[in-house]
Specification:
The chain has four domains: about 170 residues, no CATH class; about 70 residues, no CATH class; about 50 residues; about 45 residues, no CATH class. It is built from eight helices and ten strands. A seven-stranded mixed barrel has the order 1-2-6-5-4-8-7. The longest helix is centred in the last third of the chain and has 59 residues. It comes from Roseiarcus fermentans.
């Protein structure tokens, strides 16, 4: 499992400036029984923020997304490293109107860091797992809070307490499954682990648990399920459909392979036809090369140059010599010289 996200609740919302303040990460046990190591993670957060600042020309200190999805909700405007408390506090400006409404209504209850594990090791003091985090983005998330959980809202300089929106635990199972799918399909053991973690953070609906078990069974990743989940009762509502998926995929693959084989056979036939046609052309081409070579080796007739001069020279008392004819030809302009040589070739054809 190389991807991570850690939830921490929002602290303050500034309605006038669309600013949200909260903790991005802290060295404390999370809901998954892990602890983010502040000292080793801090350089990765500093590097990530510095790269975002440089790439944005100083406008953003880090990407802020919604629910770890593709929606760019806003940007970090400040990031502070509290070495004493071993936590990283961030301030985000939300520019997306839809996501800002969710912040105002208390739908989003916290920040969640998204990234990867650099390394993990047992924590001797707590018996939990300690890890070094490398962030890729920070998201606004709607992890359900306790009914009495509150956050500060600032408007016109006045601070008031507000309650987060009460989550509806009766959410339709299909919607919950779609939420899990939205973070990526369950195709590997790592995806199963991530889905289990999201299930625990999204209300622990039994229908979603059944879906995860069925999906893990279908892809042969049952070992990635928690110990209490590996039961012989695998016949859940989604199982027939999931068991049919490999067969359907195999049938589709076989059809594609057959189509590729037919295309290859047609290409082989066309190649054979071209080779046969080329074999018939090669002798004629070789003969043509020989004839051109013989023509090039033929010497010009001795008197050809004498007849290549202007017609006004006809009837002269004495015909010019070969050297004089060549000299006159050389003195002619290129077009006149080409015309004279053409006339010469027409009046003195070669005899075979």
């Amino acid at each position: 499992m190389t991807s991570l996200d850690l939830f921490l609740p929002l602290h303050k919302v500034d309605l006038d400036r669309r600013l949200v303040t909260g903790v991005a990460t802290a060295e404390a046990p999370d809901r998954s029984g892990e602890i983010c190591d502040y000292v080793s993670s801090k350089p990765y957060f500093e590097k990530w923020s510095a790269e975002a600042l440089a790439a944005s020309g100083g406008k953003s200190m880090g990407a802020v997304r919604a629910m770890h999805g593709r929606i760019a909700a806003g940007k970090l405007t400040d990031i502070a490293f509290d070495d004493d408390a071993k936590r990283i506090v961030v301030e985000a400006k939300v520019v997306d109107d839809d996501e800002w409404r969710k912040v105002q209504e208390g739908v989003y209850t916290g920040f969640s860091q998204g990234g990867r594990y650099v390394k993990r090791w047992p924590d001797e003091d707590t018996g939990l797992v300690r890890y070094t985090a490398e962030p890729h983005e920070i998201s606004l998330v709607d992890l359900p809070c306790l009914p009495d959980a509150t956050f500060e809202v600032v408007k016109g300089g006045v601070v008031e307490k507000r309650a987060f929106a009460t989550p509806d635990r009766q959410t339709d199972a299909a919607d919950s499954v779609a939420t899990l799918d939205g973070a990526g399909p369950i195709e590997t053991a790592e995806d199963v682990e991530n889905a289990v973690r999201d299930w625990r953070r999204n209300g622990e609906l039994p229908e979603v648990k059944a879906y995860i078990i069925a999906r893990a069974t279908a892809i042969g990743a049952e070992s990635a399920l928690p110990e209490g989940w590996r039961t012989p009762e695998k016949a859940v509502s989604a199982a027939p459909k999931l068991r049919a998926e490999p067969a359907a995929a195999l049938e589709k693959g076989a059809a594609a392979l057959a189509a590729a084989a037919r295309k290859l056979e047609r290409a082989a036939d066309e190649n054979a036809r071209l080779e046969k046609a080329l074999a018939g052309v090669q002798p004629a081409l070789a003969d043509l090369v020989k004839r051109v070579a013989a023509l090039e080796a033929q010497p010009l007739p001795p008197k050809a140059a004498l007849r290549a001069v202007a017609k006004g020279a006809d009837g002269a008392a004495e015909a010019p010599g070969a050297d004089e004819a060549i000299r006159r030809l050389a003195a002619l302009p290129p077009e006149a010289r080409a015309l004279a040589l053409t006339k010469l070739s027409l009046t003195n054809p070669l005899r075979y």
